[in-house]
Design goal:
By secondary structure, the chain is mainly alpha-helical. It has one domain (52-493). It contains 19 helices and 2 strands. Helix 6 runs antiparallel to helix 7, helix 6 (110-129) packs antiparallel against helix 16 (405-438) and helix 11 packs antiparallel against helix 17. The longest helix has 34 residues, at 405-438.
Length: 494
């Protein structure tokens, strides 16, 4: 005879209101004790933190941060280090939307997550095992410099996770593209305003308040002449190359709105905005900006042609890509060939090109002394410190620049860090290219070109990845999450 089944005793459930409200906070403390009560209270706070209100606030902060990315050297706050408005807005968005950051991190591709984790681990290891030094009289070379670089990296990765969590697959990323493109249009308009404003002493001719690359001025010094004998424009950036890289990466996002008919006059607005950005970029007279934009465009066209099955188009695009790659070393060896195109003097082009190559060579020589993990995050600018060009033969030194993320990474984190960056950026480019290959839309083409341009620009100017590059990467990975698992039907039939 079988034993009768015994009913399992269960604890009485906590009372729940008709609207699903949780019980009062004092109930867990009375029945469970202090530690369980604290856990329960923390869980309730997290539940409310994960609600729609925090999601709306973090989304608004993200869009505002993306739109104001052009304020790179204007509207900044000097707290030893320069803090831009977008830095504050995106940092606040990540804090307010912390549950979304965690949720988005879980939805990102595993390859990206492992590459990001490896890069952070390398930076932490280089920080602990590095050889941190400082430049006398330079507050930006203090012991906190490594923390600033690690924080920059973490903010970029958190922004990508926030976008993935706040704009999941069911929501459109068009607001993100609109915010980025609108910021680029405003940056181009202001740069064109600077052309007559600086000559005629108009108001707001230069609103930059962050110290520029000379280390001793805030933009009041005149730049060299370029097209039509006019001064090169830099807009709200520290120098023209930074503005050109920003416009090359974000201006192309206007393509995402071609064919959008919800508002009247969209084609005309897009055409005018495109012309404005091209003209502004021309007056930067930045050869790296144009070369990188050309490389990114031809690479995107090649992937699109292969994805469509257009043999002739893929051949032409491949030939164009090869020609651009051949032209680059020619321009590095003979920069005076660009004088008729840029309007800049031959001596100036030679001087700037030689300076960039000398910075690369010096960075490689410094790296050779500590090749594995480098000197620590942010040490490339310290090791390359030099006399300011605006005040030569002085007793002060200003932080230098490796003139590229790859060279700065070699000094900061060694060959291990360079390998981690190559893997991370390669994964992002892979997903952006796969999205374009599987779904040939103008938005995907624009996102790929923007991603490739952001990666390329980081290799020839500056020593850190700009915040706008992280924003473009976030959009690229969000677009990849919406990409179909298989190519479109017209691609499968071709």
């Amino acid at each position: 005879m079988p034993f009768p089944r015994l009913r399992q005793a269960s604890r009485p459930r906590e009372p729940v209101g008709p609207d699903g409200a949780l019980p009062p906070l004092r109930a867990p403390l009375r029945r469970r004790g202090l530690v369980p009560a604290l856990v329960h209270i923390g869980w309730r706070v997290w539940v409310h933190w994960s609600g729609p209100t925090a999601a709306r606030i973090s989304g608004a902060l993200t869009l505002a941060g993306f739109a104001l990315l052009f304020l790179d050297a204007a509207g900044t706050i000097e707290l030893v280090y320069t803090i831009t408005p977008s830095y504050l807005l995106l940092g606040a968005a990540c804090v307010v939307g912390a549950p979304l950051v965690l949720r988005g991190w879980q939805t990102l591709p595993p390859g990206f997550r492992w590459a990001a984790f490896a890069l952070v681990a390398v930076y932490v290891a280089a920080d602990f095992l590095g050889e941190l030094t400082a430049v006398p009289g330079q507050e930006r070379s203090t012991a906190f410099r490594d923390a600033v670089y690690v924080t920059d990296l973490l903010l970029g990765l958190a922004t990508i996770s926030l976008v993935a969590g706040r704009w999941p697959r069911r929501e459109s990323i068009r607001p993100l593209l609109a915010a980025l493109a609108a910021g680029a249009v405003v940056a181009a308009l202001y740069a064109l305003y600077q052309l007559p404003a600086r000559e005629l002493a108009w108001p707001f001719a230069d609103i930059n308040n962050a110290i520029n690359t000379t280390g001793v001025s805030y933009g009041e010094q005149r730049l060299n002449d370029a097209l039509f004998g006019r001064e090169r424009v830099r807009g709200t950036f520290a120098e023209p190359h930074f503005l050109a890289g920003y416009l090359a990466a974000l201006g192309v996002l206007l393509l995402a709105f071609v064919g959008w008919r919800r508002l009247p006059g969209v084609p005309a607005v897009l055409a005018v905005a495109g012309v404005v950005m091209l003209v502004a970029m021309a007056f930067t007279a930045s050869t790296p900006g144009w070369v990188i934009l050309g490389l990114a465009t031809v690479a995107g066209a090649s992937i699109a042609a292969v994805g469509r099955g257009y043999v002739l188009g893929a051949t032409v695009a491949g030939i164009g890509l090869a020609l651009v790659l051949v032209i680059v070393p020619v321009l590095l060896s003979s920069p005076t060939l660009l004088t008729p195109v840029t309007g800049r003097q031959a001596t100036e082009l030679t001087l700037t090109t030689d300076y960039r190559k000398e910075s690369w060579n010096e960075a490689i020589d410094i790296w050779a002394a500590r090749p594995v993990l480098g000197y620590g995050p942010g040490q490339s600018a310290v090791k390359l410190a030099q006399e300011p060009t605006a005040a030569p033969n002085s007793d002060i030194l200003v932080l230098g620049s490796a003139q590229g993320l790859w060279a700065a990474t070699l000094v900061d984190t060694g060959v291990v860090g360079l390998g981690a960056w190559i893997v991370l950026l390669g994964v992002i480019l892979l997903y952006a290219g796969r999205t374009l290959f599987r779904s040939l839309r103008l938005a995907n083409l624009a996102i790929f070109i923007a991603t490739a341009a952001a990666v390329g620009s980081a290799q020839v100017v500056g020593d850190r990845l700009k915040l706008y590059a992280w924003a473009v990467f976030a959009v690229a990975l969000a677009a990849a999450a919406r990409c179909p698992a298989e190519p479109d039907s017209h691609q499968r039939d071709s």
